[in-house]
Structures are given as C-alpha cells and as structure tokens.
Amino acid sequence: MILFPHILTGAAIGSRIKNPQGLFFLAILALSSHYLLDFIPHFDYGIAGLMKGFSFDVFAAAAKIGIDFSFGFVLLFLLAGKKKNFYYLFAGGIIALIPDLVLFLSWQVDSETLKQMAFFGHQAHYKKTVAAVPIFLEISTQLAVSFLAILVILRKKVFTKK
Length: 162
Description:
With 162 residues, this protein is mainly alpha-helical. 67% of the residues lie in helices and 0% in strands. It has one domain. It is globular.
C-alpha cells in the first residue's frame, strides 16, 4: 500500500489516544495496522529503483515516495493540526511507516536482522497473481481506507451517549 493510507490510519489510531499511558497501545496498533493494510489487495507504485545503485531509477522512486509522504503528512496537518492530541496523531502516522522504513533499510544495509524483519513484512504483504484484482479495485481499497481514517480523525468521540 502506498504511504498516505498508512499515515492516515496510524493517525486515526493516534486520534483515540488521550494520555501518555496510551502510547504503548498506539505503537502496537499502528504497527499492526501496517501489516493488516498491506495484506489487503492494493496498488503499489514501483520503487524497485531504490534497490539499485545510484541511477535515475533511484531519483524517480525517491520522488514518488517524497510526494506520497508529503501528501500524507500535509493532509494530516490540515485535518488535525489544531487538535489537542495532535502529537499522538503524528506519532501514529510515523509509527505506521516503520515497516516500510525497515524494508528500505534492508535493501541498503547488509544486516541479517533487517532482512529477517523485512521478510516478515513481505510474508504478510498482498501478492499479485495471474488472476490479479483489477487496478481500480486496488486503488479503491486505498481510498476507502483513507476515507475511513479521515472520518475517525475528524470524529470527536468514538461512542456517544444518548
């Protein structure tokens, strides 16, 4: 899944945190959300260029990631910049990206630990097959996840009393 749905989902989880005691749960849930979202059929833009040495492919992949990352956090700031618990939303957005950071680092650094951690994420990741899901459905899942996360971020209370 591209970055901005992960950022928004982590932020949505963070939006439910009201005190520092909830940070442990925020970390667990935001990390778990990444693997859950990556399991759902979704579109990924090509970033294989990051696995190569210095080349145009590296710049193209970095540009895609930079735009995606920026879009996610700009949207988060626009949606929740004035909330009292904004730091929890921001932390959730960052924590939800850790598995992708580990994957990138496993490509760049010769570390068996990083490679094992990245392998775990790869096992949970949606795999395209010959009978792949149509691309419009792959994109739709990301839009739906993002829309639901935005609703959670904007909602004041999870449960309301009548």
